Amino acid sequence: MGVKTEKVKYHRVLLKLSGEALMGKKEFGLDTDTVVRIANEVKNVLELGCEVCLVIGGGNFFRGIDAASQGIERGTADYMGMLATVINALAVQGSLERIGVHTRVQSAIPMSTVCEPYIRRRASRHMEKGRVVIFAAGTGSPYFTTDTAAALRSVEMDCDALFKGTQVDGVYSADPHKVQEAKRYKSLTYHDVLSQDLRVMDAAAISLARENKIPILVFSLHSSGEFAKIIKGQGKYTVIRKEG
User: Fold this and answer.
1) In the prediction, which pLDDT does 6 show?
2) How far apart are CA 40 and CA 117, in angstroms?
3) Domains: count for the chain
4) Burial environment of residue 116 by CB neighbours within 10 A (0 to 12, 13 to 18, 19 or more)
5) Does some domain include residue 236?
6) Does any domain span residue 184?
7) Is residue 6 included in any domain, yes or no?
8) What pLDDT does residue 62 have?
9) Which residues of the chain have pLDDT under 50?
């Protein structure tokens, strides 16, 4: 694992997944086949010689902002959502290790019984050794989304790019499932995303990526092998990068 066999455009990357991405066709929780398929997509990229880390949301179990609207204090609700991300991280870790990929989960909220605490230098060393690192519990602070956590960890890990796996093959001017005339963008600037309110990721995440010149590549999780193709500079995606 980790031996480069083909020329790749990005060597160290962070993959951001929503919790809903793990549901498959279910309305709640985890779909085992979907988790296994995503694990294989990550393994394929590792076999190209890349270093990979992940941030996974928790919306398939709990969404803090939704709970806050129903009366739970926002800070408490966000911490509950962070715990949901740990469940997802452990599930993906299990699937990766079953197919021979050494994986570490690091949580921003210390819980040493089930995973490591987040330590930046240790995480980077794991990746250098060919291990996948899954960052759980967001930033460890309420009021920040897992999108922001993904941008933060991609900067801290000195990643070449932040990949966001979604339900569609890039960024559109509107939801293509609802608006037939929605325009698909091949590339955008950070300013375009913010000024047009395209809702790819939250504003804090986009601003952090912009400040640190981390390109964001948005692609479809449902296209088998697409993650590996884009790593090699191929495939179908939208790239968000600096102006000019």
Assistant:
1) 67
2) 26
3) 1
4) middle
5) yes
6) yes
7) no
8) 83
9) none
